[in-house]
């Protein structure tokens, strides 16, 4: 029996499209060019910053962040938008009696991006920065189970990334749900490791269906 459902932040509950669009303007390319670079980066299994380096040789992330801050440009996580299906999905899970959570690789304060979602008193929110451990480390998922107070097999973890979400959550014994949206979700759906997911969903409604009826 699944007693808790925990969601990743970016490209799961929150769209990063607008945030990446600002980065495209910053490095001087079109959105299409940056998203093509992101696709290539995913296939290479390289970190996010590689996409910006492809678009702008010699790109220095630290320098760019400092310059953006000086100009008053919002940080990446401040430009997230809540996906339209997010709140209804969380409401369905709460109504079914599940504990709902959000936890992912984000800086402290990223939870502010969830502002359009009504957060309940029993809901759980955490970032890798606050915990001092990031996905895909097993310690992240151990901490998640500890904080929730449930055995791993009673926790569903939903995310768009096969490498950071599905594989480590499944290895921890959780009910791993792969959300096939966003650049990582679409490209990584073709990876062999995607088969580690207990369920694959095109949207949060399908993800909730899988969680509430895991044996179907």
TrEMBL record:
Name of the protein described by the UniProt record: HAD family hydrolase
GO terms, molecular function: hydrolase activity
Domain of life per record: Bacteria
Keywords on record: Hydrolase
InterPro entries reported in the protein's UniProt record: HAD-like_sf, HAD-SF_hydro_IA, HAD_sf, S-2-haloacid_dehalogenase
Pfam families membership: Hydrolase
